[in-house]
Amino acid sequence: MPKDTKNYEKYFLPPSLSDAKRRGREEIQVHYDFNIPEDMQSFGKDRYYLIQTYGCQMNEHDTETIMGLLEQMGYKPTEDRRQADVILLNTCAVRENAEDKVFGELGHLKHLKAEKPSLVLGVCGCMSQEEAVVNRILQKHPFVDLIFGTHNIHRLPVLLREAFFSKEMVIEVWSKEGDIVENLPKKRQGIKAWVNIMYGCDKFCTYCIVPYTRGKERSRRPEDVLAEVRDLARQGFQEIMLLGQNVNAYGKDFEDIEYRFGDLMNDVSKIDIPRVRFTTSHPRDFDDHLIEVLAKKGNLVEQIHLPVQSGSNQILKKMSRKYTRELYLELVSKIKAAIPDVGLTTDIIVGFPGETEEDFQETLSLVQEVRFDSAFTFIYSPREGTPAADMADDVPIDVKKDRLYRLNDALAQLSKESNDRIIGQALEVLVEGESKNNPEVLAGRTRTNKLVHFKGPKELIGRTVPVNIVDAQTWYVKGEWVPAAAVK
Ligand code: 5AD
Ligand code: SF4
Fold first, then answer.
1. What percent of the chain has pLDDT over 70?
2. How far apart are CA 320 and CA 391, in angstroms?
3. How far is CA 294 from its chain centroid?
4. Is the pLDDT of residue 4 over 70?
5. Distance 286 CA to ligand 1 centre (A)
6. Which terms are listed as keywords in the entry (predicted)?
7. Which residue minimizes the CA distance to atom 2 of ligand 2?
8. Helices 96-115 and 131-140 sit at what angle, rounded to 10 degrees?
């Protein structure tokens, strides 16, 4: 890779997984002077864009930045592919099926590109950071105009110009993370806002591609995060979701100040915004100070997403999760002692290399012991370049599917039980909108993020109101709006 990637003007910079793996001690600079080049400021006038986003909330939030950039260039959004002058696929690399979807989509877009050669078709996000993906696009989908990665989103205006005028595929993917660029425009909608607090991950769990596609851990300066949250509060947002691959490693990389995630949460709790959540956290870095701060509640809601991945020590070790089943359970006990009504959610992988039925039973028993409100569950998917990809993927697919099915069954029962437990309570519900299937019914969320359906006037949308919970289903509860009720 050329040394000074930031000034590399050739726009053919493919990724390298081995470069991405190296963690240097280079200092990360923070830039506050972002501007769209003058000649690009009205480049999108009378033009339309469409972005398809795959994957996690980090990716969705990156899409908000990309939309912000495009709209500052004058582009307008469209849902109609035929109207679009720019189509971007913001991709996810975490599992193979996410990648398959993108390659399938490229197959469809080929025809559109043939009909409208002026269309700029781009691929960005985590898949772009993978060498094998970029090579495959070069060989099998040469009609793609632009590939850029997760570290150089701010370069979009320049890259778009290049892609528009060039006959070659424009590829600019930085294998090493870039600096932090503040003040990028963001197009946010609705009543909830995502806020990045850190980028990257240094944990290197053996199955995970993220440390390679998102680079090393870099925390945003506290004053920048707090200023953004204050600004969102002033704009009227009702809920903030603080984002990072591993939020409780926040601040570990600061050399000049001792300021960690607990300190940040403490400062955010003083800002006048109704609700603050965060995702995602790693059990290893979940310290006592953070628990103490969260226990004060206020706008810090009592819901924690705490990925466990497996309940078996043998598998946790092979995953390099850096904690044991016992440590995880101890952490859960500490959290429950400090915050008795906490709602815990998690991520679980089944069928990791070497997982036996006994290992899987350990996962099931941990799930019962913790009594998660809900979980994201996945079948293990080997990712090229990760250490686990070199382990024998020896659990037959039928067994993996059967375990996923049994796990989901157990989780559905736990979710129903947890929903049953809140019947009769009057809870604060943030009203998000009409329910998907019935416009007569409103849908909102409790502080523990349970979905509530109830009847009420549309004016309640965007407000936090008391709702009496009267009935429980597996994945949601039904309630009655009782304005005079005492809120627990
Ligand atoms: N296979 C299956 N699931 C994975 N995850 C991450 N990498 C893989 C993989 N290779 C899951 C983990 C993580 C979530 C975001 O995705 O459970 O917490
Ligand atoms: Fe992946 Fe592990 Fe980092 Fe989460 S903590 S992003 S699973 S490497």
1. 97
2. 13
3. 21
4. no
5. 20
6. 4Fe-4S, Cytoplasm, Iron, Iron-sulfur, Metal-binding, S-adenosyl-L-methionine, Transferase, tRNA processing
7. 205
8. 30
Write out the DSSP string of 282-338. Answer: -GGG--HHHHHHHHT-TTB-SEEE---B-S-HHHHHHHT-S--HHHHHHHHHHHHHH
Instruction: Give me the chain's average pLDDT, please.
Output: 95
Nearest Cα residue to atom 5 of ligand 2: 203
- CA–CA gap between residue 225 and residue 209 (Å, rounded): 26
The DSSP-derived string for 170-231 is: EEE--SS---EE--------SSEEEEE-EE------TT--HHHHS-S-EEPPHHHHHHHHHH
Token pair for 52: 């398809």
How remote is the CA of residue 343 from the centroid of ligand 1, in Å?
A: 21
Average pLDDT of the residues in 28-34: 94
Question: Is residue 208 annotated as involved in ligand binding?
Answer: yes
What residue ranges line ligand 1, CB within 6 angstroms? 94-95, 207-208, 307, 309, 347, 349, 378, 380-381, 383
Residue 222's alpha-carbon distances to 47, 250, 291, 376, 388, in angstroms, are 37, 10, 19, 30, 35
pLDDT at 3 over 80: no
Q: Which atom of ligand 1 is nearest to the CA of 381?
A: 1
483 has pLDDT over 50: yes
**Residue 395 — pLDDT band, cuts 50, 70, 90?**
very high
Q: What is the pLDDT of residue 10?
A: 66
Contact 343, 448 (CB under 8 A): yes
CA distance 296 to 356: 41
pLDDT at residue 6 tops 50: no
For residue 112, give the nearest of 130, 89, 133, 131 by alpha carbon: 89
Give every CB contact of residue 447 below 8 A, 6+ residues apart in sequence: 275, 301, 302, 303, 427, 428
| Domains in the chain: ranges and CATH | 5-172 (3.40.50.2300), 201-290 (3.30.750.210), 302-421 (3.30.750.200), 426-481 (2.40.50)
**Ligand 2-lining residues (CB < 6 angstroms):** 201, 203-205, 208, 210-211, 245-246, 282
The tens digit of pLDDT for each residue in 64-85 reads: 999 999 999 999 999 999 999 9
Q: How many CA atoms lie less than 13 Å away from 159 in the CB half-sphere? A: 31
Provide CB contacts within 8 A for 196, sequence distance 6+. 58, 61, 220, 243, 244
